[in-house]
Amino acid sequence: MNFLPEIAALDADMRGWRHHIHAHPETAFEERETSAFVADKLRAFGLEVHTGIAGTGVVGVLRNGTGSDAVGLRADLDALHIHEKSGVAHASRHEGKMHACGHDGHTTMLLGAARAMAQRRNFDGTAYFIFQPAEENEGGAREMVKAGLFERFPMKAVYGMHNWPELPLGRIALREGPLMGAFDIFEIVATGRGAHAAMPHLGRDPMLFAAHVINALQTIVARNIHPLEAGVVSVTQVHGGDTWNVIPQEVVLRGTVRSFEPAVQDLIEKRIGEIVQGLASTFDMTATLRYERRYPATVNTREETRHALAAATALVGAGNVDTDPVPSMGSEDFAFMLQAKPGCYIWLGGGRGPDTPNLHNPHYDFNDEALAIGASYWVTLAEAQLPVRTSVRAAA
Ligand SMILES: [Zn+2]
Ligand SMILES: [Zn+2]
Questions:
Q1: How much is the pTM?
Q2: How does the average pLDDT of the chain come out, rounded?
Q3: Closest ligand (CA of 76)
Q4: Residue 23 Cα, ligand 1 centroid: separation in angstroms?
Q5: What dotted CATH number matches 5-179+297-395?
């Protein structure tokens, strides 16, 4: 492991910051204390600090030399609505909220990188340290892009990372193309005709319709999608009926769709609509479909994946970099930044063995041993993307 000396010297401080953030989790767009903590630290490190971007977003700006190149490094600030059961000394002090996705670690690693780069001054150009709100569910990255992130802070590429407990500590995984899935939701409302359950011939049963829809939706991936393409259709809620002997008037189904390729996403949405309307007609009732695209797929661009791979390899060695991980159908709102800019998103190993709780588990706690690895990766990557020109160095 090739830790940078400035990062190794910061390790104890980073653990302290991480524990402080972990103990004070804040959820989507309410990350006020966390945002203030980050802004204070960045100012103390000597960065120019911009706050209040998409609510609680913060951007730290670090310039060096005369170069006009710029890169962005991104972390997320938010926690989840989970009651923590980790039992650690720095467990959540905010009832019902918890850093169960390790964003406390992400924020800390990016702060560590800012501190080290400000000390080292070993780059030419501008590094933007982006701390976004509301990664979980609410699309804070999309809001930052809408708020003019890339116009206010022009950059050639943007990079992201997520701690990954399934991957052992000391390993990094990345790939060109999709690494995380697109996340859509749907709601189907079926309206039949309520009736006495003993006299079904007098009604139109939306419950029977729902049963057929649930079955038929599973034919989309099995029978419409190319066998080598990936998609998921999951019905996760069925609401209808109040008692034993009444056929209800209405049934509501809800669920989620995951995909990597826009063509697959389009096809699934189209087929859900056709199945719902076709079966509504079969069962003589009305049905409406609301289909909403939440997060796009997280897709790494070629050149930037090469840069991320070079930084990862320099840090942990080629034997510890997985260049062909199976992508996850989980989703990530960094996808919105990758829609606007080239870039690469990686998984940072944090696993402590087979019993490591997974992300979003109430027992989860970011692995502090990964802090120095992640922070060193950021610095290695950013310095390589903003190289000090040797002619300038020689002339100085
Ligand atoms: Zn999460
Ligand atoms: Zn996360």
A1: 0.93
A2: 96
A3: 2
A4: 17
A5: 3.40.630.10
